[in-house]
Amino acid sequence: MGPAGLFAALQLAETGARVTLVERGKPVAERLADVQDFWQQRVFNPDSNTQFGEGGAGTFSDGKLTSRLNHPLTHRVLETLVRFGAPEEILRQAKPHVGSDRLRVVLVNFRRQLLQLGVDVRFSTRLTGFQVSNGQVCAGELNDTELLEIEHLVLAPGHSARDSYRMLSAAGVKLEPKAFAIGLRVEHPLELINRIQYGMQSHPQLPAAEYSLAWNNRQSGRGVYSFCMCPGGRVVNAASEAGGIVVNGMSDFRRDAELSNSALVVTVRADDFAATDPLAGVRFQRHWEQRAFQAGGDSWSAPAQPLLEFLHGQGGRLHSSCLPQVVHAELADCLPSFVVDELRRALPQFDRRMRGFVSEQATLIGVETRTSAPLRILRNAEYESVSHPRLYPTGEGAGYAGGIMSAAVDGLKVANSILQRYTV
Ligand SMILES: Cc1cc2nc3c(=O)[nH]c(=O)nc-3n(C[C@H](O)[C@H](O)[C@H](O)COP(=O)(O)OP(=O)(O)OC[C@H]3O[C@@H](n4cnc5c(N)ncnc54)[C@H](O)[C@@H]3O)c2cc1C
Fold first, then answer.
1. Domain locations in the chain as residue ranges
2. How large is the average pLDDT for residues 308-319?
3. Residue 19 CB less than 6 A away from ligand 1
4. Using a CB cutoff of 8 Å and minimum separation of 24, what contacts does 147-152 make?
5. Which of 145, 258, 342, 347 has the CA that lies 20 to 30 A from 387?
6. Cβ distance 323 to 238 under 8 Å?
7. Ligand 1 touching residue 377 (CB < 6 A)
8. Nearest CA to ligand 1 atom 2
9. Ligand 1: which of 28, 39, 45, 52 to mutate, judged by most atoms within 8 Å of the beta carbon?
10. Which atom of ligand 1 is nearest to the CA of 47?
């Protein structure tokens, strides 16, 4: 029930197909309570958290709908979101965003519509396997117990469903490792970013300022870039596995919180994690997430360091919105040395582009590891797994999308491909 799965289900159900939608997590209201428990009491639920549950990874997000896609289906996604309660202005904006608060409303209306169309929506239900007959996928295994006969299995698990990746690998589904990026999140006072970008702390007619930074190291061939910027938002611990820290950013529609944040990440190639098998990238991510967990004191606090101290060994102070909390740590211990080196080279470049970016008021928080999937589930021109006919990998976890909009569009494309089979 992330954007890929939701949009695929809607498209199929609107055309009259019989759809069962399974989601390992909970409906959005119950999920919100679990996530609050995690952020406030540090009670972690492996199936109901910032990554898993109704709405997928984007539920606790900035709800940015920007993407590099220029596909007619993007409009269909925006119109659908507006139909379910997203602000109408997203239809006109160059950089539309919904905000985490408004997304929750959209999700409830989305589910109502699916139920009205007869979709069998099952929460707390995990796809744990599948069966093959005559060379084609013919049934899904749910919660290790139930078999559900199907004609087509759309698989939209996101990039954090590591048990699902393991299950697919064990079943012989063709996967390949892919590049991704890892790094840190940076937080600055919103007013500082406004001052850099607008020349003034605030203006009633200007939104919280955004930025996008990129620098390529010609010698190493690596890119360092800002990612998923959340103006007036907050940093959150977005873990989906015990013993590992993953940070990300979210904001409400008004983007009026005190701090602005974004990820600063470095590209990681398959040869950086000695990709002997398709799951090597997952192990690489997990290793650094566990290092961050230890650096944070083994208690779900995120390790953090003033940006000046990360760069020059001293200076600055910690100021972070991160939930549940940050603790001071040496961030160079939480990332591979090539990532640390690239970040240290890129930061002065970023400061040249945005004077004041390297500031005593800036804080770095670790670690940002889930920028995109570390593997791809290979599929053919009909969007079907190359090894398993009738299995349709889609969305970010399959390696064909990055972000809410592109995941939703990919889900629509898969649904259309399935419907095409029935067109005479
Ligand atoms: C905190 C945060 C902020 C973000 N901010 C933005 C943003 O502002 N803009 C943007 O474009 N993107 C943002 N993203 C990224 C965006 O959320 C993802 O790119 C997008 O949600 C991917 O969609 P998806 O449908 O492919 O997968 P997901 O959204 O990850 O959904 C997958 C779903 O499948 C479920 N699932 C997994 N395995 C199983 C299984 N075996 N059985 C049953 N269910 C299963 C999961 O519980 C989940 O609900 C953010 C992500 C996070 C974590």
1. 3-175+376-420, 179-368
2. 96
3. no
4. 148/20, 150/20, 150/390, 151/390, 152/390, 152/392, 152/418
5. 145
6. no
7. no
8. 61
9. 52
10. 47
Question: What CA–CA distance (Å, rounded) separates 141 from 269?
Answer: 34
Neighbours of 288 (CB within 10 A): 22
**Interior CA angle at 353 toward 350 and 354, to 5°?**
85
Give helix then strand counts, H and E, for the chain.
10, 17
Please, are residues 318 and 304 in contact by the beta-carbon 8 Å criterion? yes
Ligand 1 close to Cβ of residue 229 (< 6 A): no
Pick from 360, 339, 396: which is nearest to 160 by CA?
A: 396
pLDDT band at 424 (very low <50, low <70, confident <90, very high): confident
Q: Give residue-wise pLDDT tens across range 36-88.
A: 999 999 999 999 999 999 999 989 988 889 877 788 999 999 999 999 999 99
* Ligand 1 contacts CB of residue 62 (under 6 A): yes
CATH label, 3-175+376-420, candidates 3.30.230.10, 3.40.50.720, 3.30.460.10, 3.50.50.60: 3.50.50.60
- Ligand 1 contact, 58 CB (< 6 A): yes
> Is ligand 1 within 6 A of the CB of residue 24?
yes
Ligand 1 contact via 265 beta carbon (within 6 Å): no
* Any ligand 1 atom below 6 A from CB of 263: no
**Alpha carbon of 16 to ligand 1 centroid (Å):** 26
User: What span, in angstroms and rounded, lies between the C-alpha atoms of 160 and 51?
Assistant: 7
Taking the C-alpha atoms of residue 291 and residue 287, their distance in angstroms, rounded to an integer, is: 6
Answer yes or no: is the C-beta of 107 below 6 A from any ligand 1 atom.
Answer: no
Closest by CA to 119, choosing from 25, 3, 15, 30, is: 15
- Residue pair 325/363 in contact (Cβ under 8 Å)? The answer is no
What three-state secondary structure class fits 417?
A: helix
Q: 424 CA distance to ligand 1 centroid (A)?
A: 35
Average pLDDT over every residue of 198-203: 94
